[in-house]
Hints:
The complex is a heterotetramer, with 2 copies of chain A and 2 copies of chain C.
Chain A (H helix, E strand, L loop, with lengths): L3 H15 L4 E4 L19 E3 L4 H13 L4 E4 L10 H13 L9 E6 L14 H5 L5 E3 L4 H13 L4 E6 L20 H6 L27 E4 L4 E5 L3 H13 L5 E5 L2 E3 L3 H11 L2 E8 L4 H13 L8 E5 L9 H7 L3 H13 L3
Parallel strand pairs in A: 1-2, 1-3, 3-4, 4-6, 5-6, 8-9, 8-11, 11-12
Antiparallel strand pairs in A: 5-10, 7-9
Chain C lengths: L1 H4 L37 H26 L13 H10 L10 E3 L5 H6 L5 H7 L33 H16 L5 E6 L6 H10 L8 E7 L2 E2 L2 E2 H4 L15 E6 L3 H18 L3 E6 L21 H11 L5 H23 L26
Parallel strand pairs in C: 1-2, 2-3, 3-7, 6-7
Antiparallel strand pairs in C: 4-5
Helix pairs in contact in C: 2-3, 2-10, 2-11, 3-9, 6-7
The structure holds thiamine diphosphate (2 copies) and magnesium ion (2 copies).
Amino acid sequence: MANIAQAVRLALHYAEEHLGVTDIFGEDVGPPLGGVFTCTQGLKTTWNSPLDERGIIGMAMGIAMAGGRPVAEIQFCDYVYNTIDLLKLAGNTYWSSNGQWNLPMVVMTPVGSGIRGSIYHSHSFDATATHIPGWKIVMPSTPLDTYGLLLAACRETNPVMFLIPKALMRVKGDELIPGEPVEDKALSKLIDAPLGDRSKWVPQWPTLDEVIIPIGKAKTVRTGSQVTVVSYGRTLPMCAKAAEALAAEGVDAEVIDLRSLWPYDWDALKASIEKTGRVVFVNEDTEVTNFGEHLMRRTTDELFYKLLAPPKLVAGKFVPGIGLADPLEAASVPQQHDIEAAIRSTAAMAP
Amino acid sequence: MANIAQAVRLALHYAEEHLGVTDIFGEDVGPPLGGVFTCTQGLKTTWNSPLDERGIIGMAMGIAMAGGRPVAEIQFCDYVYNTIDLLKLAGNTYWSSNGQWNLPMVVMTPVGSGIRGSIYHSHSFDATATHIPGWKIVMPSTPLDTYGLLLAACRETNPVMFLIPKALMRVKGDELIPGEPVEDKALSKLIDAPLGDRSKWVPQWPTLDEVIIPIGKAKTVRTGSQVTVVSYGRTLPMCAKAAEALAAEGVDAEVIDLRSLWPYDWDALKASIEKTGRVVFVNEDTEVTNFGEHLMRRTTDELFYKLLAPPKLVAGKFVPGIGLADPLEAASVPQQHDIEAAIRSTAAMAP
Amino acid sequence: MVRDARKMTRAAKPDESPAKPSRPEQQRFPPMISQSNELPLEAPLLLQLHDLMVKARCLEERLIAMYKSGHGYFWIGGPGEEAFNVALGLLIKKGQGPAFDYLHFHYRQSATLLAMGEDPMGAIRQMKNVAADPYSGGRNFAGHFAKKEWNLVPVSSPIEVQYAMAPGTALVQKRHGGDGITIVTGGDAGTAEGDFATCLTWSSRPGQELPVLIIVTNNRWGISTPAGQVQAVEKVSDRGVAFGIKSKTIDGNDPIGAWLELKEAFEYVRTERKPYLVEANVSRLFGHSSASGANYVTNEADCITRFEERLEQHGVLTRAQANALREKYATEFADLARIAKEEAFPDGQTIWDHVFHGEPGRDPFPR
Amino acid sequence: MVRDARKMTRAAKPDESPAKPSRPEQQRFPPMISQSNELPLEAPLLLQLHDLMVKARCLEERLIAMYKSGHGYFWIGGPGEEAFNVALGLLIKKGQGPAFDYLHFHYRQSATLLAMGEDPMGAIRQMKNVAADPYSGGRNFAGHFAKKEWNLVPVSSPIEVQYAMAPGTALVQKRHGGDGITIVTGGDAGTAEGDFATCLTWSSRPGQELPVLIIVTNNRWGISTPAGQVQAVEKVSDRGVAFGIKSKTIDGNDPIGAWLELKEAFEYVRTERKPYLVEANVSRLFGHSSASGANYVTNEADCITRFEERLEQHGVLTRAQANALREKYATEFADLARIAKEEAFPDGQTIWDHVFHGEPGRDPFPR
Lengths: 351, 351, 367, 367
Ligand SMILES: Cc1ncc(C[n+]2csc(CCOP(=O)(O)OP(=O)(O)O)c2C)c(N)n1
Ligand SMILES: Cc1ncc(C[n+]2csc(CCOP(=O)(O)OP(=O)(O)O)c2C)c(N)n1
Ligand SMILES: [Mg+2]
Ligand SMILES: [Mg+2]
């Protein structure tokens, strides 16, 4: 089964062949490395950019303007913050020109904690990204969703921010990407670059089928009746595990993988919250002016009188960084037990 | 009575003389212009910087590191978005160095709509700023608060973001800054630079007293019993007016000027919301992942069972820009009637 | 006609030296107009340059008048840059897609648009921010053009970001083949932003050099700040040298010199498919913008006055003809402004339009 | 002793030419060590340079060993830059406040710190991310030093931002008077970020030139990307020319040449109070970081091997002495690492400490 890094690669291969992607670029994205997470190994349109994030975003905008289809990578989202003006510009160009210049471009970047990345390889970007109008924003948590959402992103005619939870990069899915070999390790032999000299290596791409996961559609990962849990990225599998664990205690949680942050699948959230009357939002970005707070506001706006308990947010602590030492990271971003506790206490509340 | 632009100037003059401010700088901040809003005319430590916002923030950080006390201006907050990484760095330097390097620095910048500034002179910055840990963030709505908060900012030993609502820049207060002449226009004669050649002009500074408005303290602008209205900046006087107007209809609203966005005066908000059971948050930043949503979340977290009505947010529409033509701006950011409607409907709700 | 102009140089001996660029003057001294005893261009082109310069000036004067009479909230534009901008516009290969030139302009280029054949009504409508504004539908400031048909990407207020985007369009053009190039322009003060360096780096990657004509119009001001106070760089064109980019400083107040220099630069970029950096010394004749009063200044060289003197001197134009031309355009634009004043503003509900391509405009939230 | 070293050049005739910097080599060819027939420095200084270089190498090797045995999550450091970094460290005026040098370093400068007299235990503790890490209390990666007593501002992971801050400390120093200067260092690939240009602009404002020693250590790599693939700039030092900044490319693999060149640069900046740009060609001996394996590469010049050969050749050092030195430091650092391995990690609740200066650390929210 493909992991997320491989799923990115398969999707980009498909997109180069069938969806007109012309440029996959960024720092160390091209040969020999193929990306610091190997996401871009062996692809035919990759190239290494100068070490200049503003240049990367500007280049992507220019390519999109001239009819190319760029997929630009920011090596870690921690290094995207000197480009927010350009991201805003990419998001407002269609609007500012009154419908003349749309920018079909994808920016992908690894986000979040979980790999002991210390202060500058642990940032989340969902709060900042969702505050920028004009972008579609997705964040898969499984390889198949990665594949399907990245194809959707490469078909979009608007800017798409593709956030990859780096803690899940090497986690294998339990669903096959259509076309990938069934046998374990076979995929790796075909498409993972060898260690050492790679100058003569060429990948053997399997023949892939198109899977489009529409941007804007959430996925119910577990159905339940008592409390809705909404998450995405690194914390999503933790929520699913928490729900399983709590089932033994008699707590019946429904878990939704939001997958698309903008636009998000309000219909799905609403239906679930109306059913359960309780909701916990979980993400790991710092908790002040956090996207989960927006979702809570939406819930309050539309469902206040149907709530059986106050909606709850579990998010990252409002501190300036995620420290390297394990106890620091553990105290900074949601852990399994934090999520379980929040679900348990929310489920237990009665009006 | 001083207006906000004059209050900034008076405060900076006081801070140069008594609080050790060493550098007031930014694009066009020095002579001859003294700032595009005249906020820095006649001051002794002003200078014009290169047109480079990253350089401005970097310079401020460096000055602060070496023991200077900088007040850096970003000409419009619309142009601060290529420096978010540096702002984050300024906010995490003390933490990352485990308590070694604190940065006493003030960044001031005009924010918000209301001067027909079109797409790039109408941005709000409160949502983005409040998501950056390690900064104190203030936003006055009166000249006296401007004076008192700016003095507090210049005494701080941490980075302070000083947001100036540009729509209120020329509005006079109804409280004297201690030391300013009572007579109308007298202040202008003393400290406003003349039109035309200014090379020989020197300001006549009145002798000012120190007023420190502590960062973190809100101000109740109007007491009321039925609904709490929390705002800051351009929308604050609109909320006050709305409350006055609604009083005639028998709606009794309490209006709080938050003034400090981080840290914010939760005690004051809590006491008021506990009393009224209803709350409307008003700001003009775009409404997705908005600071008002954080305040709503805090309210839900701590006061859910005391609420008589769902908390409400009135904020800017989630569109990529504020258009130049009046109908566009009016449809994009909260107007008097929007605020009145929100207060009225919230006040009318009963559990 | 516009396209023809690209070939209208007098058949010159190859080594006939065009007007020499003057060294950039120190702050406050207006750049000198290059003078030569013989005009190296044919009369029709000279008259076309002059006509367009006057047309552009009259248009800007009308926009300023609109501002001053309350028909528009903010003015910014290009009076003082007409000589350079008209020459530039005449040399552009106009059209849509990578076979044609991509234009990353700043807010002082009405003259370039007029030289390309643009209807002046667009600028007037944008000034008045009416719904019919063809560039932004009443959303953006004066001078913030955008025209996809002509590869004119939206002029945006943030200084210098266009320099970060320009290599992107040029990359697609390089791959596409043909002679389409990318042109990016901005002011001198803005070169202090890192994006200027970004443009130099990304345009000159070894083996991946891009067809970008990188232009800086140097008026020696950033709003109120004199260049000499904040930048040690004496010639902005020197910034290109370390990158191996062909670079030149020219007199942007002289339409003839500008035309010849630009022609050379265009030819180099079109054929070599490599970047070329042109710094053009120009004047700023009505201050920075309406925020600084928008009044005519008398201490800077006026490219039109000087050009007219020269044309008169050589018998190409009479004062009466020049006056008549000005009169004609002034009247024409006053009439257009009267029409625009009656036009409708965009409706508030249109803020939802064009948030996302391919989707109907709608408020995502129930109200 | 460290301070004395600043005056330890052999009393040379003024025109005696120091080791000449070699031209930067093309990608993949290791920079050559300059060779001269006579060593222009006194033996004590040569031995001090050597001792510190070996000490620094051994420290980095210990950090790598810690990483490989699971005592640390990430390694990045400076093996290959010892010749340059030791020379640099010896010339620094160490202390707190504007009378002393401000240091805006990047993540390859353990050798500079050791040359300044730093206790190597700090680097080991930071590698192990224990609470006693003196630079970040277990919060930051290896090589991310910060030491206020020595004006060493926090090394931060984002590339090149230090270049935007350096002019700020230098401004305060210029005003303060004395001979304290600001030193900023970074890699070659990072010069593509706009912040490098920002540093050049802000350090050279006319009449406001700042005492900044702007250093780029050029190892011709950015992680996996060869410099020649992404940047046309052949000598980074050329970037200073347009700004009127005195600029030079030197051989950073030769400790003698580096010492002499840096001494000249330091003296210029200390006395002229103006910027100076030094590009030092160096090697990268263990790849980019632990992410690329942290194994010794054999196709780059090793400054220690070469220096030892030269010292042997001139009878300043024997192989046996060199081996003994290495042995000594290897043992010393292995012992220190054993101690660090037993030390405590920071407690989770300390995340609230040092959010705001002057305020007790606390969670702002009830849980
Ligand atoms: C990023 C950014 N910072 C600041 C401004 C405000 N501003 C508008 S024009 C201008 C001066 C520009 O000077 P220059 O680049 O020389 O162009 P000129 O206006 O002189 O043609 C400034 C500072 C802006 N628009 N964008
Ligand atoms: C702003 C930023 N972008 C990307 C990175 C990831 N990164 C870390 S080191 C590095 C390469 C740096 O190369 P160079 O500047 O030459 O320094 P060297 O490591 O070679 O000494 C990159 C891309 C980063 N740390 N910061
Ligand atoms: Mg200018
Ligand atoms: Mg390097």
